[in-house]
């Protein structure tokens, strides 16, 4: 399976990707996770990405494309992959098409998880993750077990201001690539409102 997950920030891409990669036994390639790891490790890429990410801006295409194409060339991607958070611009989508064509790889589907804008900020500012397990919770909608609450962390870009900036970027830069994949007949639209279990079932039905 070669799948791309697209959707606004807070749509549940990370949560769903984690579930789907287990079912399909493919690697989860989250460009956001890769960039956060680069920032934490203070690599050259991380230093260049840090400021853009904190503001809620996109990291420049050249950096993200090189990082992702390199990752897709690794042996574990030979049997498939779940791309989460890439592509996010038309330039990234075109670069991905080129890289896949060169490798004679065909995408199975692009899944768009749709959530109305008025639900996004509430989803994002209550989001917390567990650094020990990588699991994502929401303080109201998916409350963590009380014994782990103290160790949960909030992403630096999960503030209301950064969230609004990310949502604006999504509409300006990422929404147009939805049309690009729809024209190719690869797009599956999935309603992202509901429990994580419900959304997972909808995605699996769309991919079946
Ligand atoms: P995410 O974890 O997917 O919400 O990504 C967090 C942040 O990482 C984004 O707000 C961007 O600053 C950066 N980022 C992740 N993926 C990309 C991408 N494909 N292109 C540009 N910036 C990205």
Write the layout of secondary structure elements.
Layout: E1 2-6, H1 13-24, E2 28-30, H2 31-40, H3 44-55, H4 61-72, E3 81-84, H5 90-102, E4 109-114, H6 117-125, E5 127-129, E6 136-138, H7 160-183, E7 187-191, H8 196-207
Parallel strand pairs: 1-3, 1-4, 2-3, 4-7
Antiparallel strand pairs: 5-6
Helix pairs in contact: 1-8, 2-3, 4-5, 6-7
Bound molecules: adenosine monophosphate.
Adenosine monophosphate (AMP) binds at residues 9, 31-32, 35, 52-53, 56-59, 64, 85-86, 88, 92, 157, 166.
Characteristic terms for this protein:
single chain, 208 residues, alpha/beta, Rossmann fold, five-stranded parallel sheet, two-stranded antiparallel sheet, binds adenosine monophosphate
Written account of the structure:
The chain is an alpha/beta fold and 208 residues long. It has one domain: Rossmann fold, CATH 3.40.50.300. It is 50% helix and 14% strand. The chain has a five-stranded parallel beta sheet with strand order 2-3-1-4-7, with helices on both faces. The chain has a two-stranded antiparallel sheet with strand order 5-6. Strand 5 (127-129) and strand 6 (136-138) form a beta hairpin. Helix 2 packs across helix 3 (44-55). It binds adenosine monophosphate (AMP). The site of adenosine monophosphate (AMP) has 17 residues, from helix 2 and helix 3.
Q: Say which molecules are bound, naming each kind only once.
A: adenosine monophosphate
* Largest sheet: spatial strand order: 2-3-1-4-7
What count of structural domains? 1
Total strands: 7
What's the multimeric state? single chain
What's the N-to-C terminus distance?
A: 11 Å
CATH architecture: 3-Layer(aba) Sandwich
CATH superfamily: P-loop containing nucleotide triphosphate hydrolases
pLDDT < 50 runs, ≥5 residues:
none
Mean of all residue-level pLDDT scores: 94
The arrangement of helices and strands along the chain is EHEHHHEHEHEEHEH
Cα-based radius of gyration, to the nearest Å:
16 Å
Structural class from helices and strands? alpha/beta
The first-level CATH class is given as: Alpha Beta
The gross shape turns out to be globular
- What percentage of amino acids are in beta strands? 5-15%
